[in-house]
Amino acid sequence: MKKILFLGVVCFAIASFCALPVLNAADAPADGLKMEATKKPVTFNHSTHGDYECKDCHHQWDGSSAIKKCSDAGCHDNFDRKAKGPDSYYQAMHNRRVKDVQSCISCHGDVAGKDREMKRELTGCRKSACHP
After folding, report:
1. What are the residue ranges spanned by the domains of the chain?
2. Could you report the per-residue pLDDT of 49-91, keeping only the tens digit for each?
3. Is the dihedral of CA 56, 60, 128, 113 positive or negative?
4. Architecture of the domain made up of 27-123
5. What is the pTM of this model?
6. What is the DSSP letter of 48?
7. Contacts of 28 (CB under 8 A, 6+ apart)
């Protein structure tokens, strides 16, 4: 009887330990997030980006605090389309030649690879996945 009780407690402890990362994971917002800080607003869907870690896009996130929007103060809060610095909202989405942290369009280009149709769909300006 004691062995069964002990085994049950051990199994419960292991299951609880394995479940901790799932319980602490950040819940992604619902689909349909409007990114309206640009001339042509984009609807972002977290469900289509499920293969990526939150930190891939939210590169300044510490892993435990609330996640900021791209356009929040201290992130990409310069809305001048001609701005080139790391605070440029436009560059965060459109910079094709990024080095440390990928922009939306550079990541989309990597995903599309050499597939021309997919590249047009993921990196095009008009009638694309971003700007339909």
Report:
1. 27-123
2. 988 899 888 988 898 999 888 899 999 999 998 998 889 999 9
3. negative
4. Alpha-Beta Complex (3.90)
5. 0.70
6. G
7. 46, 47, 50, 54
